[in-house]
Write a structure and sequence with these properties.
With 83 residues, the chain is of the alpha+beta class. 20% of the residues lie in helices and 40% in strands. It has a single domain, classed as Alpha-Beta Plaits.
Length: 83
């Protein structure tokens, strides 16, 4: 099992990155998926699923802001269990 550990800017604590899955309505084009280089993606049943590790809340909010700025509709977002 590979676990990514990062240093937080506040308090110097060590935290583990969490894995997320974000389901987006429709098939994202290659150009759109390239806007999320830190995430993998798969297209299934009329949706695109983005997945990957998110190191903190700031990164998660940044991903959601990028999705909104690109006009993409998030259908579901969930934290994945530890492998």
């Amino acid at each position: 099992m590979v676990v990514q550990v990062v240093r937080t800017p506040f308090g110097g604590r060590w935290e583990t990155a969490m894995r997320y899955e974000i389901r987006v309505e429709g098939h994202m084009s290659e150009a759109l998926t390239e806007a999320f280089p830190e995430l993998g993606h798969v297209v299934m049943a009329g949706h695109t699923v983005l997945y990957g590790e998110v190191v903190d809340d700031a990164q998660l909010w940044g991903l959601l802001a990028r999705l909104q700025a690109l006009g993409l509709r998030v259908l579901e977002m969930r934290q994945l269990p530890e492998p």
